[in-house]
Specification:
Bound molecules: zinc ion
Mean pLDDT: 93
Low-confidence stretches: none
Radius of gyration: 18 Å
Strand content: 25-35%
Distance between the termini: 46 Å
Oligomer: single chain
Largest sheet: 5 strands, mixed
């Protein structure tokens, strides 16, 4: 499988692997890799074709398309709340099923994740890339342990799956409708010029973030339809509800568990 590299805004590269982008931020002294993809390609060669600077690697959350390439790095930062789930998704049997069901990849190379040091990172941690400083923000919503990264010099927010055209809000019973609204409100307080998301090839705007937050705040169970559970491969999802809306002329799909609605 080919990796596709694109500089989406100066110093910010999207490397596309199957259905996901990992983001490489290149500073003057260090580079930062935001997520590691499915782990089915040679991500390191792609990174080294862009920069030879020392690399900091951070996982946004624990889903299979964001942590699968961790094996290639000595150290990966992660929210400690996501650690157990990351180990689950990268365990051999779950990874095998997950790759088949999400991207139809059979017989993927088995990876050894035991040599990668997983280091806890929490809100407020700052990484210095030289001409860019990267601030870690905790935004539970898509999962209970999502992180975002704020780079103030460029007014860029990296949100991974926490702001998207498809919002999946169902993996944790700890996450409620009000949790995601609170997290998106927190992000909206930053003077954002560009939002870089993992499943979008172009940046999203601050305006989009606010509209998305308001749509989610106004969701009511009665106006949603039940999702076809066969679309959710890894567990029992019979309590999912789906809502489609238009935000800035783009169709946005929001999927939540029935028991997550807590705004009336
Ligand atoms: Zn995800």
């Amino acid at each position: 499988m080919q990796l596709i590299i694109k500089e989406i805004t100066p110093g910010y590269f999207h490397i596309k692997e199957a259905k996901v982008h990992v983001t490489l931020v290149v500073g003057s002294k260090k580079a930062l890799l935001w997520d590691t993809g499915y782990g089915i390609t040679d991500l390191m060669s792609a990174i080294r074709s862009i920069t030879m600077l020392p690399l900091i690697v951070i996982n946004s959350h624990s889903h299979i398309d964001h942590i699968g390439g961790n094996f290639a790095f000595d150290e990966v930062y992660i929210n400690p709340t996501a650690l157990a789930s990351a180990a689950f998704f990268n365990s051999a049997p779950i990874r095998e099923i997950g790759l088949i069901r999400t991207i139809n990849v059979h017989h993927a190379v088995k990876r050894d994740y035991s040599l990668t040091r997983m280091t806890a990172v929490r809100e407020g941690k700052i990484f210095d890339l030289g001409d860019k400083t990267v601030e870690v923000i905790e935004i539970p919503g898509h999962t209970e342990a999502d992180l975002a990264l704020w780079i103030k010099e460029d007014e860029v927010m990296l949100t991974a799956d926490a702001v998207n055209y498809v919002m999946w809000l169902y993996f944790s019973d700890q996450v409620k409708q009000s949790t995601i609204v609170k997290s998106l409100t927190k992000l909206a307080e930053y003077p954002i010029k560009n939002i870089i998301a993992s499943h979008r090839h172009t940046p999203l705007s601050h305006h989009y973030l606010v509209e998305l937050r308001d749509v989610i705040a106004n969701l009511r169970k009665e106006t949603c339809i039940a999702v076809d559970p066969s679309a959710m491969p890894l567990s029992d999802h019979t309590d999912l509800l789906e809502f489609h809306t238009l935000i800035l002329h783009k169709e946005v799909q929001i999927v939540m568990r029935e028991n997550q609605f807590d705004i009336y």
